[in-house]
Amino acid sequence: MAFELEALVGHLYIVGGRVINVNPPGALVEVAPPTAAEGREGDTFFLLIVPSGSIAPTTFYEQLATLAAERYFSAGGSVTIALRAMFQMINRNLYEHNLEHSESDSQQFETSMIAAVLHEDDMYVARVGPVVSVLQTAGLTLTLPEDLTDDEPLFSVPLGLLPEPEISMVRYGVNAGSRLVLSDGNLADIPIDRLTSVLLENDIEKVLHGLRRTIKIQSQLMLVELVPPEYESPVLAAPGESSHEVSLKLGEARQQLALEMEGAPGKRPRRGDFGSLLSWGLAHLAGRAAGLLIFFADLFQRLFPLPEITPTRRLSSGTLILTILLIPMIIVSIVVLSWVSNLGETEFEQCLGKLQDTASLARSLDTSNRRSVTSAWNAALQVAEACDVMRRDDPTVAAMREEAQTLIDAINNVKRREAIPLANFEDAVITRLRLQGTDLYALDDKNDLVYSIKLSDDGREPIRQEPISLMRIGATHEGGFTIGQIVDIAFDDHSGDLAMLDRNGTLVRCSPQFILNCDAQRVLNANNWEGPKALTIWARKLYVLDSEAGQIWRYDPSGSSYVSAPREYFAGSARPNLRNVVDFTISQKGTVYVLYDDGVMKTYIGGNESPFVFSGFNEGSEPHIARTEGFYLNDSPFAPGFFIISRRTRTIFETTVAGTFMDSFQAFDQEKLGLVSAVVAYPEQNMVYVASGNTIFRIDMDVG
Q1: Which residues are within 8 A (CB) of 290 and not within 5 positions of it... i.e. 6 or more apart?
Q2: What DSSP string describes 610-625?
Q3: pTM metric for this prediction
Q4: How far apart are CA 617 and CA 413, in angstroms?
């Protein structure tokens, strides 16, 4: 289907809410020139370059776009290889410029870039930095990145900051009527259903008008509509060059080149002419051998210059031949031995130089641009890790790694702390922690078993740790109750008992002072639960969060038992979606706090939702970006607030009860919190306990 599609192209350039009636400075559309490499001759190239960081003159982006197009069309191989080579070339130029001028006051350059290539009936799209594409084809709306609401892939590192660009690439099948938008990151703010509606307008002009009405403040975008070659555009547009004509020109040029080569001197003889073939082969072999000998002779002359002496008798032919053969072998042996003996040191020194250059670039960036500075120092950390593999514990590498990590932490308001192992359980996965005084309890979700850890008075050391035999799957209790899969554990503040609930509705309560003194009962209507997820006891009432039913079941006590059917916390038919809840709790005042895995916290009073929002977080570290695995409500007079854990960032966030950011903590050894899943606080000692995998760690918050 080569050359069966042509492109109608429109642009939208909005600055400060005002439409600028020129194309964005980094926008370019180009069909293959006659000099295009083989494989590129039928391609149509679309490019949009968006400023990032400090803004350069308009001509900078125009020249950069031209350079990118030239590099793409001169590259052979597949489309993806050519696109990757183009991005790497542009990134290398910017990166080397930034390194060279990192110590001076010269402007540092970084850009975001998105390119698309129409190759036969495929559209290839590649991006680096916070730029996006949206394709409407065959009734589907496809985006790159795939999820425009996820900030992590959207805000990738621009060109010019890392030694190697982080390229995202995708290939789509297209046809006549397909529409493609290449845009800066502002397009991601538009809901996908609204984008789909706009892209389905009757013609390209209406699509541009629809985007103009939707985007209010800032935009640089290119709109492409694919049409048959004979299509007559209803929109006034400057005509471009047809890929049909380009293909014909390329064919003619290559045919002419072939004719010229037929008569060129030195061409390879035809297959049947044996004598000419032999002469041609020997000539080429002799030429290559001569070139090799000249190279070695020149190298030998440079390394061991001959003294000026008077002529003596000539060497014999045998001596001359031996000399010619031995000298290159000796030289090669010397070079190889020297290279092998100094390989590790040379590689390390090169790595160290690269680390110093990367650090210099990071130091030269404007500190007000948090994202760029963080990306640059993260690149320095990556280089430091590579250097550390070559030479462990090198003081220079260690110092630069510490500098990079310290500055990143300062930008992100992160405090580094030592994560000290407190307890370890073989073949366990700890998912819940509960603390009552100096009694710490852990739920092993893998083995459906509850552990008890008795702590010292200051909470810093475990005195003993043991499994609770009556709180494990398969344990039997008086009355014929057998424990099934455990849902959760909780404390009853009224009685001081530890409670455990399984999926069958079996409630076991044990006294912490006499952990083998337990009673069990079966709560009513447990067979109606759809997905019990968490347990909380407040004011003696039992609350069970049922994620699949979208309900919290409340059991009222009767003496020391729960004998009545549950009541619904959320009344009526409108129930919240609780499927992605990681945990919930109830404050002393009766407010229900529900935390979702996407970092959203919701609060309810009497079953009615109350406004709640996290605030004060640095850009990029908000809970909805970091994601969350669990939380703990410190409801005591000692600095009340929340402790929220994020496995994705291996971070413990501390906020006020109102959700305002206070602190964030990470371990010096970040691998320790790689599986973080639960947290509780010991506020009197300014300490938190976190579970990660099969280990519980202690972290002192007030000790650096």
Answers
A1: none
A2: E----BSPPTT-SHHH
A3: 0.57
A4: 9
